[in-house]
Amino acid sequence: MSRMVIIGAAQLGPIARAETRSEVISRMVRLLRQAAELGVDLLVYPELALTTFFPRWYMEDEAELDLFFEAALPNPAVQPLFDAARALGIGLCFGYAERVDDGGNIRRYNTSIIVGKDGTILHKYRKVHLPGHAEHEPWRPFQHLEKRYFSPGMEGFSVASGFGGMLSQAICNDRRWPETYREAALQGAEVMLIGYNTPRHYPLAPEHDHLQDFHNHLCLQAGAYQNGMWVVAVAKAGCEEGCDLIGESCIIAPTGEIVAQTKTLADEVICYPCDLDRCGEIRKNIFNFKLHRRPEIYTHLTIR
Ligand code: ING
Fold first, then answer.
1. Which CATH number does 4-301 carry?
2. 47 is catalytic
3. Which of 28, 88, 95, 227 could staple 36 via S-S, CB 3.0–4.6 A?
4. Structural domain boundaries of the chain?
5. Is the pTM of this model over 0.85?
6. Residues 235-260 pLDDT 10s
7. Is 110 in the pocket of ligand 1 (CB under 6 A)?
């Protein structure tokens, strides 16, 4: 009996800076109800799903910055999403800006959680690879200040058991780094859940702008195939506060094949019945780590 889990990708269109949490939550709940009609077991939303991608602006006022963060989860604004998911018996995965007050020591992370069908938080992940810059760079058409607003996650990549298999999470830029998938696969991950906000324009190399969709799927498909895992990648898409974000959210099989993909740059749900046992076609054969991998040779991989 194969281990089937119907995983959905809930792509979000643009979120305006002024959009309230409850307006965003009602959009997310609408997608959740569409997913329920499709029999989805686990629905994945993008990175920083609750707000606009605020690292595109330089802010000095911490009170203004903190408007984009959650001090705790769940919280009253987000509770309707948790309640709807529990009532529908659907698990969730979504990214948000996490503010931790450790006795006055404030830390901020780009975070994502997996929530079980019963509403319990099964896994929390803090983004490891923070792209962009830490200081205001006015030459850019928009900022990318993740290095200013977030601390890098220090817990690294991990796995959690849920939905009949082993799940892992990564966030946006993480998906470009092969280490992300291998770290998770070496811990037994069978599914990698990834949200992203990716501008089409990359100010440091505009000659690559036309390659953003290609690079997106290239990284995801390679990660899936080379590690024999399902990859679910979900965009915040469309023209958000004047910044064009790529879409093409997708579900990728352990063979590297894209089995489902969004067609719009708006709120859109896709899903696929993922047979977790199919990871074995890759992990027991071509990428059988125990038989074929040579870690004693890869001595440069973790040298700083
Ligand atoms: N965004 C982008 C990403 O890695 C980026 C940053 C854009 C990198 C375009 C390279 C090219 O997809 C986030 N949020 O990491």
1. 3.60.110.10
2. yes
3. 88
4. 4-301
5. yes
6. 999 999 999 999 999 999 999 999 99
7. no
